Every structure is written in structure tokens, then in C-alpha cells.
Amino acid sequence: MAEETGQVRTEKLDAEAEARRRIALAQIRQYPDPALRMRAKEIEGFDNGLAQLIERLEHLLHDANGLGLAATQIGVLQRVFVFQPSPEAEPRALVNPQVVATSDERLSDEEGCLSLQGVVIPVERHERVTVEAKSPSGEDVRLELEGLPARVAQHELDHLDGILILDRTTQEARKEALATLRPQPVLVR
């Protein structure tokens, strides 16, 4: 059974799945990569290039064992992300997504990020959101999301705007996260 810690599943993987996960993570930009702080541009062409980008995002999401992945996390500054609305569902791609309505209720919960390995911090998000977007083929999409799917969608939308969970947490949690992310010195003898 898969457990979720923030945005990252934490079940034990067999050796092959762990190897695929490591290869996928090597293709995902890691903090402090500048691409993670850049705002993605609207997608205008619903063509084969977009289909290939979405296929790559879905493949990396699956192999990395994540719940969502934005194009900016692989260095592509286009407004598209993929996410899994539920563990048994196929990944869903949203093109040019935007939140059009939010609940007044907000909930703080732990979040992790495929671009911030080893960091799980509290982030406050809207409990429910309505997202409008385009499908990969250009049709209008409107999703009413609640709970974890709403949290994942807000997290990925933040990525498209260059916002990280570090920007949405407490000062104390940010300090701890930055200490985890700080490169450790390598001692050479």
C-alpha cells in the first residue's frame, strides 16, 4: 500500500523501481536550479510537441513515484502539469491551468516536492479549488478538486509561477528545509 508524504509516495520500492526512480529524479530540476523560479509561458499550440512533453512528464511522474509534476521542473517553461487525482487514477494533464474559485477553508498539511529531495514541510492551502484548463488536445476542462487532489493542483500551479513550498511555509520550517538542501562539504583525504 502506498503512503503519501506531502507530494511524494513513500512505499518501499523493489530494486528495479528504485533504479527507475533515481533515473527519473536525475532528470527533474533540483533546488536551487534557476528554472524552478521562472514563470512558465502560456501554451498556444496543441501539437505533437505538446503531446511528447506530456508523455515525458507522465513517464517521469510514474518513475519518480510522485503525485504531480510541472513542466518547469524539467526545465521547460510552458504552462502544463500532470497529476494523479487519486492513487488508482491515470495521470491527468492540464494545459494553461488557472484557479478560478477557492474555498474559504484552508488546511495546513505536510508537503514534499520532487525538486526538493528530503524536504517535507507544512504548507497551508485551500481545502477546495476549481481549476479551469485545456486538455492536451485543446478542449476546455473544469475540475472541482478537494483534499489531496486540490493540494497537488495548487502545488503544481505554484511551480508554473516560480513559487516553491519554501515560499509558503513558516520561517522556522524554511530554515530547517534550507539546512537540509544546503550542499554538504565533501572531505577528501
Our estimate of the beta-strand percent is 25-35%
Number of helices: 4
From the spread of the alpha carbons, the general shape counts as: globular
Write the element-wise H/E pattern from the N-terminal end onward: EEHHEEEEEEEHH
The largest sheet is: 5 strands, antiparallel
**How large is the radius of gyration?**
16 Å
How far from one another are the termini?
Answer: 44 Å
Unreliable stretches (pLDDT < 50, length at least 5) are none
Structural class: alpha+beta
Strand order of the largest sheet: 3-4-5-8-9
Q: Quick one: how many beta strands? A: 9
- Percent range of helical residues: 25-40%
Average pLDDT figure: 93
Brief synopsis:
This protein is of the alpha+beta class. Helix content is 28%, strand content 26%.
